[in-house]
């Protein structure tokens, strides 16, 4: 009992507090973005986000209470579960409005590709720890790439290009943190360039359309509509914004999917530059706390888990805000902890629970 109490004394309350602030921030902005909605799905977005947040916080504490090394020891079962769930989606998954087959219903709708982001971090982290002294060999690096390649292929075929790229980015960050050699980095960059035509041919038409739209909006006003509305929203917000729930683009429904893909535009319009910078500041503090946990980790597995979770949050933040600012193509990735999306929120809180588990057991006696 005394040992367990000592472990909880290392709980990072700053990281947990910042996470809670981001969740509350998100609920408030989702509420603003869906004010006056008549669509039943939009009306249910706020209570559903709160429901997932409560479950997610419980998951965070439950995961933090478990020694992360136990998750590492369960690597074969976690990887098997991951592949099984993604395969199950291909057979029994629900098809969404855009034709993507990504969801399973287990009481609540669940998107296994979201869960895959964190399960990959655990499985790959344990795999790299066992191969830690062999990362100077190309064969070891290629095996790790194949390790994430199978689930990434399942996710790409759903299709979900954004999460596929996120998983590959997470793989790169974790392998690099584990000691990837510069010569191997250059080789993989060359391979990525060579693979682009293959990727392009196998993309869905709407995915290619998003890239065309990003390059040029000429002759495609309908596809560029949301991008232009996002630019208007962000540009009209000024320093302090138009006021909470007072944004014209969002409240008058000019801005579509404002509760998910374009929630950053709602923040910038209603809370202005200050509100937008606050989002970056909070996520920046969260990333610093995660990197602190990595530096305190007692073993490579703990550090790699932290690097993986940080990579997920960083990538999603950059891509989500980048597409709102027309700096990147629209991908559908959520703004961490803020965009509406139950599976994404649960997954991210699971990841924070893993980081808490690492930092709580940083002492050799824990």
Give a written overview of the molecule.
This protein is mostly helical and 366 residues long. The chain has one domain. 72% of the residues lie in helices and 3% in strands. Strands 1-2-3 form a 3-stranded antiparallel sheet. Helix 14 packs parallel to helix 16. The longest helix is centred in the last third of the chain and has 34 residues. The radius of gyration is 21 Å and the shape is globular. The model has no long low-confidence stretch (mean pLDDT 87).
Secondary structure blueprint with pairings:
Blueprint (H helix, E strand, L loop, with lengths): L1 H7 L4 H21 L6 H4 L1 H21 L2 H6 L1 H18 L1 E2 L5 E6 L1 E3 L1 H19 L7 H19 L4 H18 L3 H20 L3 H11 L5 H17 L10 H4 L11 H34 L3 H25 L17 H19 L6
Antiparallel strand pairs: 1-2, 2-3
Helix pairs in contact: 2-4, 2-14, 4-16, 6-7, 6-8, 7-8, 7-9, 7-15, 7-16, 8-9, 9-15, 12-14, 14-15, 14-16, 15-16
Keywords:
single chain; mainly alpha; 3-stranded antiparallel sheet; 16 helices; 3 strands; 72% helix
How would you summarize this macromolecular structure in one to three sentences?
With 366 residues, the protein is mostly helical. It is built from 16 helices and three strands.
Distance between the termini: 12 Å
Mean pLDDT over the full residue set:
87
| Distinct helical segment count | 16
Order of helices and strands, N to C?
Answer: HHHHHHEEEHHHHHHHHHH
What kind of assembly state do the chains in view correspond to? single chain
Secondary structure tally: strands: 3
Main structural class: mainly alpha
Placed side by side, the strands forming the largest sheet appear as: 1-2-3
| Helix content percent band | over 70%
The total domain count is: 1
Q: Main β-sheet: number of strands, strand sense, barrel status?
A: 3 strands, antiparallel
Supply Rg.
21 Å
Q: How much strand?
A: under 5%
Low-pLDDT runs = none
Which geometry do the CA atoms define?
globular
